[in-house]
Amino acid sequence: MSLRDRYNQLVEQHAVDAVRYFSQWNIPSNERDDLVQEAFLEAWKSLPTYREEAPLRHWFLTICRRTAWRLSQKHRKIEEQLVEQLPDTKTGDDGRVTARRHAIMQQLQRCISRLSEVQQEAVHLHFVMQLSEQEVADHLTLSKGTVHSRLRAARKLLQACIKANESE
């Protein structure tokens, strides 16, 4: 298979994964699209060195991860700024439901942002990217038990955070 064919296969199979991965950062869609392109450009440059020891999806998500972490180093507070700019309500067919869902999503984002970076990444990979605990472990080069304990601890912290916010 040629390099171009392998790259086309990567794009076809994992474009949705890249968009989903970068969606966790709550950045405007045009900037998210730039990150997706940056990740695919990095993948194109690195594809000749891909050794097929790890699944292509894990290899590519590692590239996405590095791209996202570079962004977070530059814009550490981007999530806080965006949450502050969001309107209190959104209009929709049922404004009350939409407003409540919006409030819950904001609350959940705030609680997630309080997790450690390693917990945030495990939560994102498992719940958003829908990787199994074993796939998360493989992707992060950790044991499955470590991933399981990080997810369990993150769930407990999120439940406590949400409960505390509800009582306020």
Fold and architecture overview:
With 168 residues, the protein is an all-alpha fold. It folds into 2 domains: 1-85, RNA polymerase sigma factor, region 2, helix turn helix motif (Rna Polymerase Sigma Factor, Chain: A), CATH 1.10.1740.10; 96-168, Winged helix-like DNA-binding domain superfamily/Winged helix DNA-binding domain (Arc Repressor Mutant, subunit A, Orthogonal Bundle), CATH 1.10.10. It contains 8 helices and no strands. It has helices at 3-23, 29-46, 56-74, 78-85, 95-113, 117-128, 133-140, 144-167. Helix 3 (56-74) crosses helix 7, helix 5 crosses helix 8 and helix 6 packs across helix 8 (144-167). 18% of the residues are buried. Residues 75-91 have low confidence and may be disordered.
Topology:
Blueprint: H1 3-23, H2 29-46, H3 56-74, H4 78-85, H5 95-113, H6 117-128, H7 133-140, H8 144-167
Quick recap:
With 168 residues, this protein is mainly α. It has helices spanning 3-23, 29-46, 56-74, 78-85, 95-113, 117-128, 133-140, 144-167. It has 2 domains: 1-85, Orthogonal Bundle (Rna Polymerase Sigma Factor, Chain: A), CATH 1.10.1740.10; 96-168, Orthogonal Bundle (Arc Repressor Mutant, subunit A), CATH 1.10.10.10.
